[in-house]
Amino acid sequence: MLRLLLLLLLLLPAVAAAGTVSILSIRTWAGPEYTRVVFDLTGPVEHNLFTLPDPHRVVIDMRNASVAQKLLQEAQVQGVVQRIRGAMQNPNDLRVVLDLKEQTRARSFSVKPDQGYGHRLVIDLQRLTEEKAQPVKPVKVLPPAPGELIIAIDAGHGGEDPGAIGPRGTFEKDVVLAVAKKLAHLVEKEPGMRPLLIRDRDVYVPLRVRKETARQANADMFISLHADAVARSTVQGASVYTLSQSGASTEAARLLAERENSADLVRGISLEDKDDQVVSVLLDLSRAATAEFSISLAEKILRRLGEVGKLHKTQVEHAGFAVLKSLDMPSVLVELAFISNPAEERRLVNENYQWRLAQAIMQGIRDYRDKYLPAQPLYAAGSRQHVVKAGDTLSAIARRYDVSLEKLRAVNGLTSDLLKVGHTLLIP
């Protein structure tokens, strides 16, 4: 019995070592508002985080974890992080210390394996005083000419968020930006249209900022570009989605929406103002007319994409995409292809194929415009105009200028009575 007990005691360290989580790499990213430190791990880890003053430090205790000292010494630091150091507290538990340049608000969360990454422990260090840096801005656009359509083009992901990653290492963020720029070029050349690129370079734009940028520019359409990924590499084809007012049309659509919506959470953007979210849901429920036009725009883009390559689904799908919520304009999300499919990944990085995708989407926009927004006669520069203010309604504006509601709609190419503050209406 004594010999058996001794044998068990000898085996205990080996068992503990076998269950130890190792830090594989340490990555940092810095922006004007916060700095992020990411620990890539061999498995999930229990941890505890706390801060210390004078000097400012963030301490992360990890249970059953280890790290090579060389990895800590060679870690590249940015932003508010001055140095990363660590040591074993006991044979099993690791303490990592982030020496900071200033006081921060620290939070941590774990991320499960996804899209080419393994287990991660993420530490976000929110600056208490933002540095005076220019915020990420979309491409500037001039105020639209009377009757001119503004097409908001949203290249998904960007910056620290690569999106899906193809078998050859192609980042979704790169291919969708390339297609977005080509689409913007085509829109720029189209008479009566002007593009608004939500991002024109490799930066991450929070989902809420994407929507607000389009709204502030009085955009007439919102098109968000993505490239899908699934576990099965044989799945292929393009898809087009609109916002669901109830539930997702399929389980796959629901899962896709969850992945896209998680971008802000995984990248450390605060979504604590839940009251605003409740308000946005209530607003969404009142926008059935916008939903109808979104479906029509989606159908026309989907049909044109089918002329370029295979379709994953021949019908428009619906899901609760956060980037499409609270938009009072026709809004669609286009999955150009499955970047997880090796053949489609090769096509997505091909410039000629990118042009074909952009041209297909452009033709879908034209088809929608020709059906709902037929060409209007040009009015003299001295024609009356009305800039929409908060509280304005279309019927009240028609009464004020003594014109019929139908004529006011027709002259301005309106497909519903929803008005955007700041939009200029032509008065016949």
Notes on the protein architecture:
This protein is of the alpha/beta class and 428 residues long. The chain has three domains: 18-127, Sandwich (Immunoglobulin-like), CATH 2.60.40.3500; 149-372, Aminopeptidase (3-Layer(aba) Sandwich); 384-427, Membrane-bound Lytic Murein Transglycosylase D, Chain A (Roll). The protein has twelve helices and 17 strands. It has helices at 2-18, 69-74, 172-189, 207-216, 251-261, 263-266, 274-285, 288-305, 342-348, 351-372, 394-400, 405-412; strands spanning 21-30, 34-41, 47-52, 57-62, 65-66, 81-88, 94-100, 104-111, 119-127, 149-155, 193-197, 221-228, 239-243, 317-319, 331-338, 384-387, 424-427. The strands form four sheets. Strands 11-10-12-15-13-14 form a six-stranded mixed beta sheet, with helices on both faces. Strand 8 (104-111) and strand 9 (119-127) form a beta hairpin. The protein is globular, with a radius of gyration of 26 Å.
